[in-house]
Amino acid sequence: MFTVFSRIKTIWDKQASYNHLLVTEKKLKKERQSLETEVKNLDDDDYVVKYARDHYIFTEGDEKAVILPEKNHKK
């Protein structure tokens, strides 16, 4: 009887592990798809320029960037 219970528990544990791996696989596939999209976007010069302008205050030509201080919202 103990052997049967032990084998059933082993099967349940392996099933739980398998289900966890399936969830992890889905997450990784989604992340991979996102990264592949980002790689494609980085091959596009217009995207790179827009990204640089949005995130790194990149300017074009005679433009000047002015960084305004953030207001403190202390009460």
UniProtKB/TrEMBL annotation:
Pfam families: DivIC. InterPro entries: FtsL/DivIC. Keywords: Coiled coil. Residues 18-45 form a coiled coil. This is Septum formation initiator.
